[in-house]
């Protein structure tokens, strides 16, 4: 039997991380973060940010607290 492949596209990976993050933020109100999202454009930019985390805020989304670009080792290896 061939070995299992753990390859995953970076958008799928970010979606999974966003779901996990939101569950953690929900169950731990002491954390300063309230929500996350993926594949959004930054303010005044045409470049998408892969993963974004927002501050916790009553009645809505807080300020952007963290954003990052995700690069998969598998995706980079395919380019070589």
List its traits.
2 helices; alpha+beta; 3-stranded antiparallel sheet; 80 residues; single chain; 3 strands
Give a brief outline of the structure.
The chain has helices at 10-27, 73-79; strands spanning 33-41, 48-57, 60-68. By secondary structure, it is of the alpha+beta class.
Structure description:
With 80 residues, this protein is an alpha+beta fold. It has helices spanning 10-27, 73-79; strands at residues 33-41, 48-57, 60-68.
Q: Strands, helices and their partners?
A:
Elements: H1 10-27, E1 33-41, E2 48-57, E3 60-68, H2 73-79
Antiparallel strand pairs: 1-2, 2-3
% residues in beta strands = 35-45%
Helical segment count: 2
**Structural domain count:** 1
Topology order in helix (H) and strand (E) letters: HEEEH
What share of the residues lie within helices? Answer: 25-40%
**Biggest sheet features:** 3 strands, antiparallel
The total beta strand count reads 3
The structure class reads alpha+beta
Separation of the first and last Cα atoms: 27 Å
